[in-house]
Amino acid sequence: MATVLPSPPRVGMVSLGCPKNLVDSERILGRLRADGYTMSPDYQGADVVLVNTCGFLDSAKEESLEAIGEAIAENGRVIVTGCMGKEAEVIRAKFPQVLAVTGAHQYEQVVEAVHEAAPPARSPYLDLVPGGAVEDTGLKLTPRHYSYLKISEGCNHRCSFCIIPSLRGDLASRRPDAILREAEKLVAAGTRELLVISQDTSAYGVDIRNEPRMWQGREVWPHMTDLARELGRIAPWVRLHYVYPYPHVDQVIPLMAEGLVLPYLDIPFQHASPAVLRRMKRPANDAKVLERVRGWRSVCPDIAIRSSFVVGFPGETEEDFRYLLDWLDEAQLDRVGAFRFEPVEGAAANDLPDHVPEEVKEERYARVMERTAAISAAKLQAKVGRMLDVIVDEVGDEGATGRSQADAPDIDGQVFLRDAGHLQVGDIVRVEIEDADEHDLYGVPASI
Predict the structure, then answer these.
(1) Residue 33 belongs to what H/E stretch?
(2) Bridge-partner residues for 193, per DSSP?
């Protein structure tokens, strides 16, 4: 008589927030899959639903609470994890029926809560699935051809507007050999682009600086430059996110010029006015930053620099804001995101004097977006007629959509391709750029 295997319990996942949260979701689900669980694509088919929350801004907390409420209404058996797990009392006060609440990066506690809510199906056949480390579970929530690679957790900065250290703790770097092993596995599974993420990529390794590791017969130090070089030997494209402009960032630019790392830097400048930066408790030497940007472009002319800025920070005057606009005109950044200042419970900036009225925030936000859109349009127009490498994200019957080396997924622009129905997702192809608008490029694959 044939053995009937028990049906494995099914887990649903709602993942909110930044790519770092997405990586946490991948690791949680990977661990659960190794324990015999299967994933449910909807609420109705799930034995339990995980909601991985974001708690960085009050608006993000509201979105997280809405997601928890929806999961409870649709399923009823809900476990909450992520950054907002730090406020368990708030969650339980609003939703007393949640089964468990855990904080960010607490993989084992989440898995234990799932085991209790929906015990795994035990079988000598199913239990042969290897567990492994949480980094090695192999489950991805991104498309096959690109992957986020988290190199550290937490942050040592104490910016006055940010509560990340209270949510995720101080910097804790992963061993370089563990990161490289994960990168190698991702590439072997089809990843073409590695997106390196952390709270502070430039600070990688400062907590384990005297602990080099052996990797393929050579010593690798836990330092951003060493790690970027080794990653460049593994993956076709390596993109660096959340880079603070420390002096040693200059050492990475030659790797970009050599083609080992994509000529792309995601640097959260946040503002340019020295007075505002001081209130933010951020480095305030704006002239030095402009000088370094010019130096980076002299070494690697094609480097794309993306950044984000906060407008309406407490005490920001019209003079401060105009200073930012003038700085942006001179810096000519390729990609810019802007945010209106939003008080976050627990942030020191809440207690600063001279909060900016909401209508002034909105007006400044519109002005900075208009200014940076014009800069973006001019820089993209300059690419018309050039040949660029493009990674393909989607393919239709006739056309395709991809990204250039200057474009990260979800946050930057796209390249729309005609006569490209023959391409495959994940292909990296040469493209002739035919047109451009404020944010995107249009082109055709080069004839082979």
Answers:
(1) helix 19-34
(2) 146, 237
Distance separating alpha carbons of residues 428 and 367, to the nearest angstrom: 36
Helices (H) then strands (E): counts for the chain: 12, 20
CATH topology of domain 146-382: pyruvate-formate lyase- activating enzyme (3.80.30)
Instruction: Say how many Å lie between the first and final Cα of the chain, rounded.
Output: 58
Residue 285 CA to residue 303 CA, distance in Å, equals 22
198, 153 Cβ separation under 8 angstroms: yes
Distance CA 196, CA 115 (A): 31
Residue 262, φ and ψ in degrees, nearest 5: -60, 140
Binding positions are 18, 54, 83, 155, 159, 162
CATH of domain 10-117: 3.40.50.12160
- CA pair distance 392, 404, nearest whole angstrom: 9
Q: What is the DSSP string of 325-339?
A: HHHHHHH--SEEEEE
CB 117 within 8 Å of CB 32 = no
Summarised one tens digit per residue, pLDDT across range 189-241 is: 899 999 999 989 999 999 998 888 999 989 999 999 999 999 999 999 999 99
Q: Is 208 strand, coil or helix? A: coil
Tokens of 338: 């802007």
DSSP of 33-61, one letter per residue? HHTT-EE-SSSTT-SEEEEEE--SSHHHH
Q: Look at residues 181, 178, 189, 186 and name the one whose alpha carbon lies nearest to residue 153.
A: 178
**What gap in Å lies between CA 361 and CA 311, rounded to an integer?**
6
- Which of 57-66, 292-301, 379-388 is the least confident region? 57-66
Q: Name the DSSP class of 297.
A: H
Both tokens of 2, joined, read: 């044939």
Q: Provide the annotated binding site for [4Fe-4S] cluster.
A: 18, 54, 83, 155, 159, 162
Chain segment 375-407, per-residue pLDDT in tens: 999 999 999 999 999 999 999 888 999 999 999
Tokens of 113: 């809560």
Domain ranges of the chain: 10-117, 146-382, 386-445
Beta bridge partners of 362: none
- Chosen CATH of 386-445 out of 2.40.128.50, 2.60.40.2230, 2.40.50.140, 3.20.20.370: 2.40.50.140
Chain centroid, CA 41 distance in Å:
23
Beta strands in 369-448 (DSSP E): 387-395, 400-404, 415-417, 428-436, 441-445
pLDDT at 56: 75
User: How far is residue 414's CA from residue 393's CA, in Å, rounded to a whole number?
Assistant: 9
What is the reported pTM? 0.80
Q: Which residues contact 7 (CB under 8 A, 6 or more apart)?
A: 121
